[in-house]
Amino acid sequence: MYKKILFFVWILVLSGAIFVCQASANEDYKAAYSFCSSEQMRFQSEFVYEISVSVTIYPIKDSEYCYDFDTEEKNEVAYIVHLLNSMNLIDDGKVIRGADIPVVNINITTTDGYTQRVGFVAGRFYDDSGKQYDIDYTEYNRFLNFIYALKTKKIILDDEVTFEASEWAKNDIDTAVKKELVPSFNQINYTGKISRLEVCQLIDNLLANYGIEDAETKDNPFTDTKDKTIINLYNYHIVNGKTENEIFPYDYITREEFAEILSNVYGLLKGEEETSEETTCYVDREEISDWAKDSVDFLGSKGILIGDTNNKFRPKEFITKQEVIISILRLANMTV
After folding, report:
1. How far is CA 192 from CA 26, 75, 77, in A?
2. In the Cβ-directed half-sphere of 208, how many Cα atoms lie within 13 Å?
3. What is the pLDDT of residues 281-295, one digit of tens each?
4. Which of these, 49, 53, 42, 44, lies nearest to 18 by C-alpha position?
5. Residue 191: how many other CB atoms lie within 10 Å
6. Strands 124-126 and 103-109, bridge-based pairing
7. CB of 191 within 8 A of CB of 108?
8. Per-residue pLDDT tens over the stretch 127-152
């Protein structure tokens, strides 16, 4: 039994909480979506065999506007299903129709052989009955960018995607979620690695929670992203690219890279320079890049980002999402 999602887009994608929440074909989609829990979502995604995406925004074949994507990989399926079900659908009672408008058709085939057709018309989601819902363009665009990143191999997911934090991290993760420090679309794969883009999303969300408006300037030197969270943090001098004009948004981030970013966030929130007179005594201190040592020392002195039980900082290792979230929680608690 296969599970298919076919996207025909002009203005693309996002959807599918129906099958994830085990809603019947006759149930109202919005209700099914509203009562969908992450637990139900995880259970259902395990029964998805394949996702097939056919995107047609503009008739420019083999571009980000027109392409096909197929996957049977469970990690990719889990992420796609999660992103679709984290979307906020707004029942505004409107209907848009026309011959030359952007359309995304999504065929979802469940493991019992039942197929539902949902999708998007002019950027609006429609359910299996044809009912339309308004959606936020940011969510819509985020999903499309993710699919294209999978298509072009710009992002390589962890082999195993989980929904639970490690035992030692659960209480802090729960607290961070309750404090709205973790947007719903980021609530996946806590134990896995985290991309530079996801770090920016979490930090941008933190700034919004503190009432910090977007930067006045909107300069974007990067040729590999148009993501507004990255652009915002760049203009706040929180993040930089790996090169002069590339940030590699889907690359995983190391512990020392994150230290540099989080130190900059602290400076913005507190309005003070991030300096420390203390020098961390990690046994692997010599492995920390010179450009990151001040940030590592500063965050260590504040207890925001610390080493492991063996007194190692492991600067070149990829940091996990749960470590990032807990560090952001500690910073948030200090800057209240």
Report:
1. 37, 11, 16
2. 14
3. 899 999 999 999 999
4. 44
5. 17
6. unpaired
7. no
8. 888 889 999 989 888 988 998 999 99
